[in-house]
Fold each of these.
Amino acid sequence: MDGALKAHQIKNLSLEFHVKNNSSIIFITVPDFLAKELTFDLDPSIPLPVEASENYKPENLSREMILSGMLQIIADPEMADIPPEWVSYYRRFVLTVKPEIYHEFTSAAIVKAKNGEYELALKINSILESLFPASPGVLLNKALILENNEALNAKALDAYEAVLSLEPVLPDAYFNAGFFFMRNRYFTRARDCFSRYIEVGEEPEKNKQAKKIVQELNSQGLDDKDFKEAYDLINRGDNEPGLLKIRDYIEKYPKAWKGWFVLGWVLRKLGRYEDGLQSLKKALELGEPNSEIQNEMAICFMELGKPEAARRELELALKKEPENTKIISNLGVLAMKSNKKNEAAAFFRTVLELDPNDPLAKHFLIELN
């Protein structure tokens, strides 16, 4: 082909995000039809990258093929030995010809993440990072994608640190980071983020929620040394020392529901199911009904031979968090214990739809077969 300069074999994504196992990039001179159609100020001295299959024919060239080629070069400039100014030119081209790309690709990344396709969601988001360098919204989306995958939690922390280092910081970055730090027990960081959101956030409901969380963090002393040490000890399996630490914490904060929750959690891990259940009921009495407490209560009820009570707690928890894989897995375990194999398998398959890498669901499905 006269207009072709060079070809580079790659494995990447097309504009529609279908994996191309044998795709390639070729460079062509600016075709006449494109020069006539576009308002973009084309530079005929800069060739255009095209994603072309092995059966590519010049007469089948489309704008989508050019955009796809450009996006791959923008996302990975080292793919081709070209001058940096060409990459900048391609970036301007894409943003001019496809101004809706930010919203379109953001939506696509979110959908992929919700479907558990985290790698693909991150690839789509990386294209946005290349198109919009240091965009707070793109960096925040990256953090949100990463935190939805437990295996990528450490990378999520780095992503949140990056988005929080920008000036000015997006209010939603403070809000979402606050919840991320809460889930990972960085309570001081969480309080700082929610406090900053209260100062700069403009959404009344989120502001109200942030104030409530800050008040709870302050009143319950969740950044207390004994609480943090107790949680860390129990989390790594040092249950007896953890039990002593959480009792020390409860002496200082007897009305802190999270203290009673952690006490119930460790007692359950120690096989003291009745004592654990009483502690969890105390947590429920002091706090608001939440899926965390109800899930733990259900485990205690299961071990105490009370399947109906366990099911009740799990169903209540699932109403609050319908995509919580731990709750769905425990419904599967409960069904297994009741010898309802088909029902159990259905629960575990649901878990794998939400998280294809869940090891327990995979194990139980194999066991059921």
Note: The first strand starts at residue 7 and ends at 9.
Amino acid sequence: MNPSDTSHSAGESVVSTITIEIVVAVALTIFGVVVAYTSYQLGAGWTSDGPGAGYFPFYVGLLICIAGIGVMVQTILNKDNKDDAFVDREQLRRVLSVLIPALVYVGAVQIFGLYVASAVYIALFMVILGKYTWLKSSVISLAVIVLFFLMFEVWFKVPLYKGSINLLGFLGY
């Protein structure tokens, strides 16, 4: 295999590079249109006392649109990456093994709060991905969370989110 070869032949391709580039180009263009449109509604013109509230954001939105269109044109004209794999199944599995638990963690923070959700998140990551024992994972996870609790709640007096179900309410926090 040539070291300069950028194609992924390790596994079956899930999505091609050209597909991702087109999706990014369309997303950039849509984002730019939204920025430009909402900025125009705010007032993208010049007023008697200077630029309106949307003047600079409007032009930033236009630049984002131009960038999105540029990515689309470059993608269509580039013949070299038509068959390149953006990600294969194994790479996608690795990314999802971190992304899905992170999304569940964000939801758990809303329900159980930052401390409880983080303790469970750290422990599960250590057990599942790090292959540590439950005992070691639980001890380290609780030690980290107790340290953070003491640091934020007690020493700095900065309350962090406890969730809709405050499991730490018995501590008076």
Note: The longest helix spans residues 17-43.
Amino acid sequence: MEQRARQRIAELRNDHDYQEQKKHEFVEHNRNTFGVCSLCASYDNLLLWAHYSYNHTGFCVGLSVDSLHNISVSLAHNNELLDLHRVRYRSRLLNPNFFKSMISLEDTRHVQAFIETKSRDWKYEQEWRLVFWHHVNEAMPLGHVAIREVILGCRISSIDRDRILDLCREHVPHARVLQAGKSETRFSLDFTSVEL
């Protein structure tokens, strides 16, 4: 019986199709072990407002990097991992070896490359990714203290504007609130402070 088991293991190790299937299953399993929140380093990009705030009718929330760091440290005490990664933009497609990275505690470059790499076409986004390991499709409560600013889109409705301002007064009175507006002289946005 033991000899048959050893023989079968040897066959599986030499079976390329089996190895590829298991690698694919392993990669897919591990690919789905983290949640990603995409963030941006800039709040004045016209394309980002058009793409991500329903053509300037939404709003933007600015987060404190110090607060994210403190949350990360706090989570680490409970064996939770929250990472902030700057996206790197490249013209060539990377082929990260997830399988190798997942079985090596020392070499996680391939997983990190997957998390941090995007096409050069998206460079204008100046993206950062907040990665919460072993939490997929979950809301992560950052707390009100993490909110540093709220920026209202230049085409936001008066109803939405009033609702957001009420929420800011109640929950984040410490946050800076700005109203975006179209520049009269450039293809850009101007921002004015809003009193709470």
Note: Residues 32-193 form one domain.
